[in-house]
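Per your request, structure below.
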């Protein structure tokens, strides 16, 4: 029995001494890392909801997801949520339908430290393939990019970047 205990003790000592110490490296943070990314979150769901409400022309629902003084940047043009809704109303009045082709991509970046000016640390990035259609006329925007700055369940700032060069053809 003593032999078995000695063999067992030696085996355990050998096992522990051979165990890799790399486990601690997983917990250590890379000094160059300033954020993490996730592909599923409440903020991603909010971005999806906002886009869905815009495509359905649900203006009150859309507006309720933004703070009152939200900043929007439509292809680098600074606008308000009210300006955005006015544009959507014009699109709706023209009989233009907005639809998404395929499955959009969403990703949230969570910064280690909030932006010192805004206090925001959560940003949702969206990539869409969108079609604007009026009757037989269709304009497809394959790279419709959006970035949402979200805090406390509301959109504080939003950037839209897309090629709008063919959209005026739907208004003729």
């Amino acid at each position: 029995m003593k032999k078995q205990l000695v063999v067992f003790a030696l085996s355990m000592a050998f096992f522990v001494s051979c165990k890799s110490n790399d486990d601690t490296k997983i917990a250590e943070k890379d000094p160059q890392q300033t954020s993490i990314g996730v592909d599923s979150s409440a903020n991603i769901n909010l971005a999806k909801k906002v886009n869905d409400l815009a495509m359905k022309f649900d203006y009150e629902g859309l507006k309720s997801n933004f703070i009152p003084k939200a900043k929007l940047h439509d292809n680098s043009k600074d606008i308000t949520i009210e300006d955005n809704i006015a544009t959507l109303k014009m699109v709706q009045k023209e009989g233009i339908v907005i639809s998404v082709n395929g499955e959009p991509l969403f990703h949230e970046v969570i910064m280690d430290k909030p932006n010192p000016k805004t206090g925001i640390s959560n940003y949702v990035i969206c990539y869409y393939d969108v079609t604007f259609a009026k009757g037989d006329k269709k304009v497809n925007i394959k790279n419709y990019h959006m970035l949402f700055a979200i805090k406390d369940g509301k959109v504080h700032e939003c950037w839209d970047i897309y090629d709008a060069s063919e959209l005026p053809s739907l208004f003729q």
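Residues 2-18 form the longest helix (17 residues).

Regards,
D.
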